[in-house]
Amino acid sequence: MSMPRHDQRPSNPDKVLYPQDSFRKQDVFDHYRSVSGPLIAHARGKPATLRRFPDGIDAEGFFQKEASSHFPEWIARAEVPQRGGGPPVHHVLVDDEATLLHLADQAALEIHTALSTVDDLERPVLAVLDIDPPEEVEIATLRHTVRAVCALFTEDGLDPHVQTTGGKGFHVAAPLDGSRDFEEVRGWIREIADRAARDEPDRLTTEQRKNKRGDRIFLDVNRNAYGQTMIAPYSLRARPGAPAATPIDLDELGRVHPRSYGLTNLARRLARKPDPWSDLR
């Protein structure tokens, strides 16, 4: 099995993947090299789903669960049974920098990871509540909601950790000891979300149907399920500006919005501030 050289370089480095910003594959490659340490620490052992854009974000991309047959043999894979039958899916495991950089070279702009590990796919090691606002919600309202959800997590004995999503909202996550299955965890997080929505029914909702939410913030618990994923910490997003999902301390929230960090500034942030989620794996 031939392992990659330490001086990995992307093919076609000048190919533009973010046309509005003129960000090239080389820029994406450099981003993932700069964040490889903390990203891999959070992704290790968790089956990954890739979101690839070979022709850039202005063209149609695709989600990829099954590892491509042309991926090198040295890339670790996890065999994940499908619920309801069918052949298992062989997901990539982002367990080392060489794998991460190979995926960057394949224009895998987004890395999404499971909430459980290969050690026990049925029992999550992370719980996540996705705070998903409509476009017109003011940032002050969104921050208030994050703080309220964190308070409810704490009341229930969970240790809340906040992440910008690089999209519209925030994630509130908490580590688990792996003793509960997905159904138990989803029920627990749904109960927290329901309490938050009851406290502020004009502002928050757990309504699954989009046309029933109105202008309220959706508290989404659906990631807490077998086969579901969340955006990996420090992963880029396929959006103009190349924002990235970024863990933050709660006391930073008043200065941060969901797309504060990304390709242009995340390496500098990590150079001056340790990973706020370093205690969460």
Automatic annotation (TrEMBL):
Q: Which InterPro entries match?
A: LigD_pol_dom (IPR014145), NHEJ_LigD (IPR052171)
Domain of life, per the record? Answer: Bacteria
Q: Where is the DNA ligase D polymerase domain?
A: 25-277
- State the name under which the record lists this protein: Bifunctional non-homologous end joining protein LigD
